Amino acid sequence: MKEAQQFVTGHGRAIYSFPVQSFANLVNNIYLIAGDEGWILVDCGSGLEQANADLLAGFTAVTSQFTPVSLSDIRHILITHGHIDHFGGLPFVRQHTDAPIGVHVLDRRVLSNHEERAVFASRRVAQFLESAGVSEEHQQQLMQVYLFAKRYYQSVPVQFLLEEGQPTVSGIQVFHTPGHCSGQVCLLVDDVLLTADHILARITPHQAPESITQSTGLGHYLDSLRKIEQIPGINLGLGGHEEPMRDVYGRIQAIRHAHQERLDKIMDICRARKSIADISRDLFGKVESYHVLLALEEAGAHVEYLYQRGELVAANLDEIEQTSHPVVLYQRL
């Protein structure tokens, strides 16, 4: 049987967690909160067959190990951000409950007008890959990988918005933390922070350039880390992936240090003129499949951050001026 976990806040409120296999190499943590207005579901997995089966098995595990609850008991659904592994299961969940769905306004269209969002986002990703110096053949392969998970989700209406500083379900506090995703929110339940993908126990959450999606990018992400760092009294962090965090503040410092190390490496790499594709290979070596796109976006986010701050410059201005679709080469000052 799938294992569930129980966490109790300083005020005695129960939070239950169980894992779902959203994709072959990606496990998500799903959270159930016993609220004053009934059960609250936080995120719901990717919507693929295995994830949906794990979602049902997780409810069974919570029932067996702690307290009776089923999908039909859910009274509110909170989506922490608009990445498919966190909201893709909504059409399946909708078969079991008509509970209202809440998400931050910047990710509203991702859930409710998904087809439109996918078209615009894919165009910006294609433009990024071209300017990054990825070959045309490789661009086509990466776009197929990018669009794979986005083609099966069917838009689901959003009933309410998660807004920072505004009352929400059962007194849960919302903190808007853009960077990893435009509408990323962290949810404070008494002294327990559901960090979603903003802060994770082991990895540094993935970053992509703001040129692809507004309100993402490393600058926004670092600002959002500072926002969470200023919240007093967080005794436990529960991420959208990986293990619980007993020291959220220490983890923030470690993540910030990791990004600074990466920025320093890029500055060293860019002693010579380099494209983002070159920089990605120098940073991450040989990677495969979807990880190629992740590596390019991660490199692109850090290059964008340095370029915005004048640490890097475009070193091939003549080519950029004279070419309709130039590859930008970056170099440190």
Assembly type: single chain
- What's the order of the H and E elements? EEEEHEHHEHHHEEEEHEHHHEHE
- CATH architecture field of the largest domain: 4-Layer Sandwich
Q: Judging from the principal axes of the Cα atoms, what is the shape?
A: globular
Task: Give the strand tally.
Answer: 13
Largest sheet: 7 strands, mixed
Number of helices: 11
> How many domains is the backbone divided into?
2
Average pLDDT over all residues: 96
Helix content: 25-40%
Point out poorly predicted stretches.
none
What's the gyration radius in Å? 20 Å
Strand arrangement across the biggest beta sheet: 1-2-3-4-5-6-7
The CATH class of the largest domain is Alpha Beta
Which homologous superfamily in CATH is the superfamily of the largest domain?
Answer: Ribonuclease Z/Hydroxyacylglutathione hydrolase-like
Q: Report the sheet-strand fraction.
A: 15-25%
- The name CATH uses for the topology of the largest domain is Metallo-beta-lactamase, Chain A
Category from helices, strands and their pairing: alpha/beta
How far from one another are the termini? 57 Å
Layout of strands and helices, then pairs:
Elements: E1 5-8, E2 14-23, E3 26-35, E4 38-42, H1 49-65, E5 74-78, H2 84-87, H3 90-93, E6 101-103, H4 108-112, H5 114-132, H6 136-148, E7 160-161, E8 173-176, E9 185-189, E10 192-196, H7 218-229, E11 236-239, H8 248-269, H9 276-284, H10 290-308, E12 312-314, H11 317-322, E13 330-332
Parallel strand pairs: 4-5, 5-6, 6-7, 10-11
Antiparallel strand pairs: 1-2, 2-3, 3-4, 8-9, 9-10, 12-13
